[in-house]
Design a protein that fits this description.
Elements (H helix, E strand, L loop, with lengths): L1 H13 L3 H21 L8 E9 L7 E6 L12 E2 L13 H10 L3 E4 L4 E4 L5 E2 L11 H9 L4 E8 L5 E10 L10 H21 L22 H10 L6 E4 L6 H10 L8 E5 L8 H6 L15 H5 L4 E5 L6 H13 L1 E2 L9 E2 L3 E6 L3 H7 L4 H7 L2 E4 L10 H16 L4 E4 L1 H8 L6 H20 L5 E4 L1 H9 L9 H18 L12 H13 L1 H7 L3 H5 L3 H19 L5 H7 L5
Parallel strand pairs: 9-14, 9-15, 10-11, 11-14, 16-17
Antiparallel strand pairs: 1-2, 1-8, 2-3, 4-5, 4-7, 5-6, 7-8, 12-13
């Protein structure tokens, strides 16, 4: 064991990417488990099948990596450990019960697939028919594991220093002779966990290996390198039948991602149906989901099939799930558990719900559970395959491409000929901006800027160019230039400083940024007077020592130095603040 851990440590220290660390770790774990199996009473009666890393920070998947036992001796390491991207046959998607048990107990869990039992290594055994915390280990998951010849699974938590769990590693084994009996996991578990604890910081901290840019299409026309790891995970999840939960801020593109997953799923030939609960009054949520018969309620003048029926055989995307009423939550939970529902006003037989659910939210659902506004059992039913879509500010490499795509799309909507393009300085300005409204805000801004450019350049021009001035003017219409909070204004000042440095042939010294103090003091002096300005800005001691006039002159000189460097006249505010006596 000491030799195994020493070799693992050496390999991890030399790893430069997540994939290298994952390969090394999975090979070590499979080797250690294989040795334990050969030393057990089941020697020669079973085998290790595969191992999978599930990186799941903040309870949302970010990376998956698998290693098949039969591929361990392959000479080329790059061919044996791979992102899971070829459908359900390549991925162990461990049950939600196993994940919840790992998080709850902070220890490894063992699964006897045949018997359907889950056992935390530091707690009594749990029956999978009575899942922990309401999480679901479905019969479908059980059958999928058995179809992959997996009879016993060990799930080990990826624990960082301090105990925080950022994911798990699952090992699958096949040993029919051990069904219903104690397998090797409890005995070898502590040694496996020690290796996983050693590897966890590397698996969490190392970046993914740079690779080819993810493919784009009409449903997701822009995918940056910042999204590459998530897209690899989603290619796997798109192939599954389990519920996919997409969290992320409003306007970040959750509905686009849901449609993208549907188009890559086995259900692609059938319909994709979307239900945005923000647009549905609470009293009509049940009706929109399940449909209604004529006369079922006031205003039901004709039959309506409902979203579940329209999505039959396909995918139903329910966005803003936190807006679902408690009554409708109970109805949805029943559909997820029993796959049946009844149309409102229909006294006949129940209907089968043959749909794949994708759920979207911008809320912290666990916090909603704590507040009592969201059912705990429903939360664990939908939190099976959770992913987090980052805000646009965390996908800065996508801002420019998205802006160009939006501009081209809007131009084609408005005009049949000619071209529209984004000037380089305008694109750079957008890339350095802050986008709390995400893609929706960017799209609205591009539309306004397009109109402003059209007014300026005329509708007959063959090439419409969106310049930085158009972008800034469009931003002013949403209050950005007039009512910016302090941080936004400082960000704009910093962006202007950097842009000026880029335009120049010689460097713009960063020390000149200290001139901001002079501009702030000048503005304060003009508004409240010299003495009060220093008190307002936390320098009353300078007033008491009568050194504030000297300090003001020093700061104003820094501001004037910036003006000189830029070749511009000193603003009147600086001149006025420096004249006259103390007030």
């Amino acid at each position: 064991m000491t030799e195994e851990l020493s070799s693992l440590t050496t390999a991890l220290l030399s790893a430069r990417h997540f994939e290298q660390a994952a390969l090394t770790t999975l090979r070590t774990l499979l080797r250690m488990a294989g040795q334990a199996l050969e030393a057990s009473r089941f020697a020669g009666q079973g085998s290790l099948l595969r191992a999978v890393v599930h990186l799941r920070p903040e309870d949302a998947y970010s990376r998956l990596m698998a290693l098949e036992r039969e591929a361990m001796e392959t000479p080329s390491p790059g061919d044996v450990a791979r992102p899971l991207a070829n459908g359900p046959q390549t991925a162990l998607l461990a049950s939600a019960s196993a994940w919840r048990a790992v998080v709850e107990h902070g220890c490894a869990v063992s699964i006897d697939v045949g018997l359907g039992t889950l056992r935390p290594h530091q707690a009594p055994a749990l029956s999978l028919s009575r899942p922990l915390l309401g999480a679901a280990f479905s019969s479908e998951s059980q059958q999928r594991l058995l179809s992959r010849e997996a009879t016993h699974v060990c799930v080990l938590p990826l624990r960082l220093p301090g105990g925080r769990i950022e994911g798990m590693i699952a090992l699958e084994a096949s040993c029919m002779a051990a069904l219903g009996q104690e397998f090797i996991w409890l005995g070898v578990g502590p040694r496996l966990q020690l290796a996983v604890d050693l590897a966890a910081p590397f698996l969490k901290g190392l970046p993914p290996r740079p690779g080819a840019m993810p493919e784009t299409d009409e449903y997701l026309p822009v995918v940056g390198s910042s999204m590459a790891s998530l897209m690899a995970v989603l290619r796997v999840f798109a192939q599954q039948e389990e519920t996919l939960l997409i969290s992320g801020p409003t306007g970040a593109g959750k509905s686009r991602l849901a449609r993208w997953c549907h188009e890559r799923s086995p259900r692609q030939p059938r319909r994709f149906e979307s239900l945005d609960l923000m647009m549905i009054p609470e009293e009509l949520q049940m009706a929109e989901l399940f449909g209604w018969r004529k006369g079922a309620f006031t205003g039901a003048v004709k039959d309506n099939p409902g979203c579940l029926a329209r999505a039959e055989g396909g995918t139903l995307f329910i966005d803003e799930i936190d807006k679902l009423s408690l009554k409708a939550q109970a109805g949805l939970l029943r559909v997820l558990e029993e796959r049946t529902y009844r149309t409102l006003g229909d006294a006949g037989s129940e209907q089968r719900a043959n749909v794949r659910f994708i759920i979207g939210t911008n809320a912290n659902l666990l916090e909603s559970v704590r507040k009592g506004t969201f059912r705990e059992d429903l939360y664990y039913r939908i939190n099976v395959l959770p992913v987090r879509l980052p805000p646009l500010d965390e996908r800065r490499d996508e801002i420019g491409p998205w802006a160009r795509y939006m501009l081209t799309r809007h131009h084609r909507e408005k005009r049949s000929g000619g071209e529209a393009r984004l000037a380089p300085e305008a694109e750079k300005w957008l890339e350095q901006g802050s986008w709390p409204g995400n893609l929706r805000q960017l799209d609205n801004l591009i539309r306004r800027a397009y109109t402003l450019a059209l007014v300026e350049q005329g509708s007959t021009t063959s090439e419409l160019v969106l310049r930085e001035a158009h972008i800034q003017q469009a931003l002013a219409y949403e209050g950005g230039a007039k009512d910016s909070p302090l941080l936004d204004a400082l960000s704009q000042a910093a962006r202007a400083f950097v842009l000026e440095a880029q335009r120049r042939q010689t460097p713009l010294d960063i020390d000149l940024a200290e001139s901001l103090r002079g501009f702030v003091l000048a503005e304060a002096v003009l508004q409240v007077g010299r003495d009060e300005a220093f008190r307002l800005l936390g320098r009353e001691s300078l007033v008491k020592s009568r050194n504030h006039q000297k300090a003001l002159k020093q700061e104003l000189k820094k501001a004037e130095a910036l003006c000189l460097e830029l070749g511009q006249a000193v603003p009147p505010a600086l001149t006025q603040a420096g004249g006259g006596e103390s007030s």
